[in-house]
UniProtKB/TrEMBL annotation:
Top enzyme category: transferase
Co-factor(s): Mn(2+)
InterPro entries in UniProt: 2-IPM_HCS-like, 2-isopropylmalate_synth_dimer, AIPM/Hcit_synth_CS, Aldolase_TIM, LeuA/HCS_post-cat, LeuA_allosteric_dom_sf, LeuA_bact_synth, PYR_CT
Family the UniProt entry places it in: Belongs to the alpha-IPM synthase/homocitrate synthase family. LeuA type 1 subfamily.
Keyword hit for Lyase: no
Protein name: 2-isopropylmalate synthase
Organism expressing this protein natively: Floridaenema evergladense BLCC-F167
Amino acid sequence: MNQKPDRIIIFDTTLRDGEQSPGATLNVDEKLLIAKQLARLGVDIIEAGFAVASPGDFEAVNRIAQTVGTEDGPTICSLARAVKKDIQTAASALKPAAKPRIHTFIATSDIHLQYKLKKTRSEVLAIAEEMVAYAKSFVDDIEFSPEDAGRSDPEFLYQVLERAIAAGATTVNIPDTVGYTTPAEFGAIIKGIKDNVPNIDKAIISVHGHNDLGLAVANFLEAVKNGARQLECTINGIGERAGNAALEELVMALHVRRQYYNPFLGRPTDSEAPLTNIDTQQIYKTSRLVSNLTGMLVQPNKAIVGANAFAHESGIHQDGVLKNKLTYEIMDAQLIGLNNNQIVLGKLSGRHAFGARLKELGIELSEGDLNKAFVRFKEVADKKKEISDWDLEAIVNDEIQQAPDLFRVELVQVSCGSNACPTATVTLRTPEGQELTDAAIGTGPVDAVYKAINRVVNVPNQLIEFSVQSVTAGIDAIGEVTIRLKYGDRIFSGHSANTDIIVASAQAYINALNRLYAALKKQEEAGKAEGNTSAAASV
């Protein structure tokens, strides 16, 4: 295998490492939706999950492999510990994929060996070699990661990598698992591997890094200069703790500064050829989808996809941009799929025109989802004179990522003011079809609505996050509400968009409560099944 391809391979782990962000749990349908968009984005490899982790993860990997892992689609990957059961399960989940990859790993730092694995270096060497070879018996494309490579002894790291490649690893991934290294150090690790692993030319060097010190993207770019050719990243940089290297930042850095990076990939400095296969115009849309489905908002000053990334308030900046965008913008907002186009659709527009515009935006819906989204579109069109593409995306995202339809908001009515006591009345339809009404007072209208809902649903929870964002400018803008609830050690998110913020707040809260309620019911049913099994066994 050529160790130095003239482009950078993008390995997206949003659905695996990204989903490990607290509160970012996705169901199978949501994962499939994101996987389809990642394919449109043009990522080379989708790490669809950790198949052995749960039946839900297995199903997600399997369905993504079947639906997205086509001949002309991306490689579909499943993570697996260096354990036979993990590898068997990953291989089984990946069977439908045209291009399957098993990604197996074992820790190599002394601190992990001593306290987590309780194994010697020689034992880890043997396990790595044996399990890579075992994985190779199922699929040809094997990735091996020495976990916590950033804190591993270099000489031992070289030995592990050499044995893994000899056993059949086609990609060796170097993880900065705890986000500890600096760019110079990380670059030196990659260079050391290239110089000291005898068979490194038979594998692609990949990198994976966390952002604990805010250096993940910088570390990766330094790794590219030293020979890394695969970057493992997530949309919006989501992931455990402070997150992962952000895909959009890496891709746009390589795009905007391609003349700087060209020589490191063996290209002429003045080459305009893209350094990745990413369709940059899908970046913003993908960012929005992941943000909405995970309930993790993008900070306004986030590079590339933040609300302020292309905004200019300073008079000097505004004057310069009006004269020539290049004075203060190093890339065009349209390059990532941002535009200010207004669609020529209104309350008299038909379903066909609505569906056609969605297709133009790259949004593909089933017949059922299209019908639901069209009903919402009509509701919004009655309230707004002009509907932007951003409004359309908000409407669609709100419809396609609804929580289980258990409790449903039928009525929300509030009374508040400067000298009034905020009061809310809500009517909910229960899972059994009953309509229940209750009222409550609160510190504000939203607090009153949530207290009234709690009186009806009666599921204890702790509201830990409430945020509102405007989709577009103007007094009639659609507002998006995202909330997160905590129950025990689990977090459930809810999201809704509406021109009425109070209604959106109620719907977002119900979405989260429905997820919590469904999880409790599932847990209760599992407990009953286990009890029945035990009773049968004792007979």
